[in-house]
């Protein structure tokens, strides 16, 4: 799990992303802030769609650590006794750091976005396209058909 910066209305916003150990995108979210509530919201969203992992690799961000701590409290209330192990290492995050290049390559020529909602929608489209390119979806249909199905 990691975040990158995206410029919206001249201000930096935070694009949270999670990938698995094979480089497949698990989830993503654009946030106005990089703090514990934003990180907790992202982790809760990612875990609700992908299940609870044994461990999560993050960088040295205190907000992400606090977010995982908050999620561990939530899942403990639901009866899951084994907490998610957190590994804080900037070197083990290389898969997602390299995956950020694809987003940056698409957004840098735009010189930022004019609104938060258009930034969110555009980034979702870029992520879905990247996921199709990485063959994360059903390979029986064409890429356009998959994109049209997800967009609709």
Structure description:
The model has no long low-confidence stretch (mean pLDDT 86). The strands form two sheets. A three-stranded antiparallel sheet has the order 1-2-3. With 152 residues, the chain is of the alpha+beta class. A hairpin with a 2-residue loop joins strand 1 (2-8) and strand 2 (11-19). The chain has a single domain, classed as Ribonuclease H-like superfamily/Ribonuclease H (Nucleotidyltransferase, domain 5), CATH 3.30.420.10. The chain has five helices and five strands, in the order E-E-E-H-E-H-E-H-H-H.
Low-confidence stretches: none
Radius of gyration: 16 Å
Termini separation comes to 28 Å
Under CATH, the homologous superfamily reads Ribonuclease H-like superfamily/Ribonuclease H
Largest sheet: 3 strands, antiparallel
Number of DSSP helical runs: 5
The outline comes out as globular
| Mean pLDDT over all positions | 86
Name the strands of the widest sheet in spatial order.
Answer: 1-2-3
Question: Approximately how much beta-strand content do the residues carry?
Answer: 15-25%
CATH class: Alpha Beta
The SS-based structural class is alpha+beta
Q: What is the second-level CATH architecture?
A: 2-Layer Sandwich
Question: What's the β-strand tally?
Answer: 5
Number of domains: 1
The helical percent reads 40-55%
CATH topology: Nucleotidyltransferase, domain 5
Question: How are helices and strands ordered from N to C?
Answer: EEEHEHEHHH
């Amino acid at each position: 799990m990691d975040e990158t910066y995206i410029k919206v209305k001249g201000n930096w916003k935070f694009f949270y992303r999670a990938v698995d150990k094979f480089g497949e995108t698990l989830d993503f979210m654009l946030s106005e802030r990089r703090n514990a509530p934003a990180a907790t919201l992202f982790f809760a969203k990612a875990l609700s769609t992908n299940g609870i992992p044994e461990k999560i690799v993050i960088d040295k961000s205190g907000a992400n650590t606090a977010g995982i701590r908050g999620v561990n409290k939530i899942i403990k209330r639901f009866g899951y006794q084994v907490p998610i192990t957190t590994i804080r290492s900037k070197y083990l995050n290389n898969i997602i750091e390299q995956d950020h290049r694809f987003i940056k390559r698409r957004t840098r020529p735009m010189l930022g976005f004019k609104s938060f909602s258009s930034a969110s929608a555009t980034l979702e489209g870029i992520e879905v396209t990247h996921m199709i390119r990485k063959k994360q979806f059903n390979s029986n249909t064409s890429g356009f058909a998959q994109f049209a199905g997800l967009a609709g």
